[in-house]
Structures are given as C-alpha cells and as structure tokens.
UniProtKB/TrEMBL annotation:
Protein name per the record: Peptidase
Keyword tags: Membrane, Transmembrane, Transmembrane helix
Entry-linked Pfam families: PepSY_TM (PF03929)
Membrane-spanning intervals of the chain: 21-48, 155-175, 207-227, 360-382
Family annotation (InterPro entries): PepSY-ass_TM
Length: 393
C-alpha cells in the first residue's frame, strides 16, 4: 500500500473564458461573501417593515378610505406646532395605510407625533428621547454595514458589484457542457437523497440558477443607488445613447423667509398638488432654513413608489416652482429611461411584481442569495479538503 502519492491531475480541456470565470467566481465570491449575506438578510427584513410594524402596532394602522378627504398636511402641521410650540416641525408624513406622522427635527420614533389622518385625533405622543429602532438599525446595516458612511457605503456598493459579477460567472460555470438528459437533470434538479457534499453543490448550483434573474435585478437596482457611473450607464443604455442630463439643484427661495406665512402657503401648495394626482399618502418636507422650498411628495399607490410625484412650492406664497427631479413628471408622461428610474425602488424590493406577492417572491429569492456565499464556500472547502488528503492505494 502506497500512501501519499496523489493521482496525476487531469488535463483541463475547458476554455480560457471558462477558467477565468471560475477564478473570478471563486475568489470574488470568497472576498465578498459575508457582506452579501448581510445585505440579503437586512434587505428582506427592511422590505417587510410596514407589515411587521402594522402587526406590532395595530393602533398605528389607518386604512385609506376612498372618497373621504384626508386632513391636509397644513392642518396637521398647525396641530403639531400648536401642541409643542417650542419644537420645530421638520416633516409631515402619511404613508398609505398608516397614521400620519409629524416629525420634530429627527427621523426617530422618539421625536414623532402620530395623528389620525382623517379625524386629527392624537394617537401617540413623542417622548423626545432617542429610541432604538430595529428597522433603522437594519437599514443602516443594509446601506453602510453599521460603519461610518464614508467607509461602509463603498464596501456595500462594490460588494454588490462583485456579487453581480459572480452571478454572471456562475451562469458560465452552471452551463452544461453537453445537453444530455443526465446533464439536464443534474443542472435543473436537486438530488435530495445525495450525501452532504453533493447536496450542498446542488443547492448552490441549481437554486442559484433559478434565482439568477431576480438576483441580477436586485443587484443592478442596488448599484443604481450606490454607483454613479452605473447610474449613468443605465440611463445611457435605456435611453438608447442619450447622456444623462445634469439635474439642476432644487430651486431656492431668495425672498426673505416669513414663517408666519408658511401655514397658508402649505394650504395653497396642498390644494394645488391634489389637483394633479391622486394621493393615498404623502410626505411634506417643511422648510428649515432661509432658502429651502416646500417639497411635497404624493403617493397614488399603496406601498408602491414608481408613480409618486414630487412638487416644489414657494414657502411664502405656495406658488408652484419648476422641478427637474426624476419624480417631477407623472409615470405615464415619462420617457422609457425615466420610467426605469421611477421603477427602480419597486424593482429593488419586489413590489413592482404584484405588490406584497412580489415582495414574498423576493424574500424567497433573497434567502437563496444569502445562502449562495455559504454553500459556495462549502463547495470550495470540500474540494480543498479532498485535494489536501493523501490518496491511499
């Protein structure tokens, strides 16, 4: 019996393209794996934030009533200001299906007044203390890896780009060399009765293939937010070669700010905005300095954002100002490239594919996405372990 003699390596007949893809898939996957797991798990948690908070806080759930007028954000602003006159109201937010919120300076639950959007009744008062918010913590991990933004943001963004490359290279590795019946069965089905090594390989290979398209969409829509060069590239391709127009900075008010005029300006702005589009929810950004405008976002759909519209108004008079942002025009009036941009968030979380059912599908796909670095590592580990073991004869 000879111990320690390894079998001679078989000659690799794969193409150079395949071998480069295999190398990229392995080392890029190992380098970014833990970050991808965190991105996927925090992403699916955040995407169901509304449903979870509705369940935990049923008193804050207020369904949209067709035909019944909501109290305008101007009325809620005055109510919030009257209740706490020494606090500055920074925003009024009425998510579709929820109570209206008046924020006092910070986007933290401890600084939010919850108001019934139809009756004006106070549902919950703020504590004016910093409160831990699990979903804010989750979003911080999803966007910054719980690191300072200047460090965490590029780590997240380029890990997503690396994940995109590993998905493409994974398809190259998955592609059957020959489309025989046996190879098709191996490529499209999991052998559940197999030993752990083969089962792990199938979970990585087969589930990765079925999840591929949606994972690519999630990765690309994520890169849209984080990588300016990809944002420009996406616009260039979807507009058939047009250069992304440089967006003007939001118009600033140059006239002297007169805070006593703000409530009336808010009324005028709201009455103008609701003539332009249906609103099941809205977000009002209240001017905080001497130059900010009134910024109003209207949400025509329940927990979908592709068709939201953004309007800017003069803070003293409530007159409409020009606005060149992505959401300044309606979805129907937008060109194809702008429609892609408007759809980006809904495509990222799955609500573009049938609302809650699309997000459930994305939940399952993202579980697969989170598992790929783990099963991929185990594929490498099992192979490495086999190579390192001496052969017995």
């Amino acid at each position: 019996m000879n111990i320690g003699k390894a079998k001679p390596k078989k000659k690799n007949h794969r193409s150079l393209f395949y071998r480069i893809s295999a190398w990229l898939h392995l080392w890029l996957g190992l380098a970014s794996g833990i970050v991808i797991v965190i991105i996927c798990l925090t992403g699916i948690t955040w995407s169901f934030r509304d449903e979870i908070t509705d369940w935990l806080n049923p008193e804050l759930k207020v369904e949209y009533i067709p035909g019944k007028a909501m109290l305008s954000p101007a009325v809620l602003y005055e109510k919030a200001k009257k209740l706490y006159p020494n606090q500055e109201v920074s925003f009024i937010w009425r998510p579709a299906g929820k109570a209206a919120m008046a924020g006092y300076g910070k986007r933290n639950s401890g600084f939010i007044l919850y108001i019934h959007p139809y009756t004006g009744d106070i549902i919950r008062k703020p504590s004016f203390k910093e409160e831990f918010d699990f979903f804010d913590w989750t979003l911080n991990g999803h966007r910054f890896l719980w690191l300072p933004s200047e460090i965490g943001r590029p780590v997240i963004n380029y890990s997503t780009f690396i994940f995109f490359i590993t998905l493409i290279s994974g398809l190259v590795l998955w592609w059957p060399k020959k489309w025989t019946k046996a190879m098709r069965k191996q490529s499209f089905s999991v052998k559940w009765s197999a030993k752990i090594k083969r089962l792990n390989y199938d979970l990585h290979n087969v589930f990765g293939f079925y999840a591929l398209i949606i994972l690519l969409v999630i990765a690309m829509t994520g890169m849209y937010y984080g990588l300016p060069w990809f944002n420009k590239f996406l616009y260039f391709t979807t507009s058939l070669g047009k250069t992304d127009p440089k967006k003007r900075v939001e118009l600033k008010n140059t006239a002297e700010y007169k805070p006593e005029r703000l409530p009336e300006a808010l009324h005028i702005a709201w009455n103008d905005a609701i003539k332009k589009t249906e609103a099941k929810g809205y977000y009002l950004s209240v001017p905080q300095d001497s130059t900010e405008t009134i910024s109003l976002f209207l949400y025509p759909s329940h927990r979908q954002f592709y068709n939201l519209q953004n309007f800017s108004y003069d803070r003293n008079t409530g007159s409409l100002l020009s606005n060149s942002s992505t959401h300044a025009s309606s979805f129907e009036q937008a060109d194809f490239a702008t429609k892609v941009r408007k759809l980006n968030y809904d495509l990222h979380v799955g609500s573009a594919l049938g609302g809650i059912w699309g997000r459930i599908l994305y939940f399952l796909i993202s579980i697969v996405g989170a598992s790929l670095p783990i099963t991929g590592f185990l594929v490498w580990w099992f192979k490495k372990k086999k190579i390192s073991q001496p052969q017995k004869k």
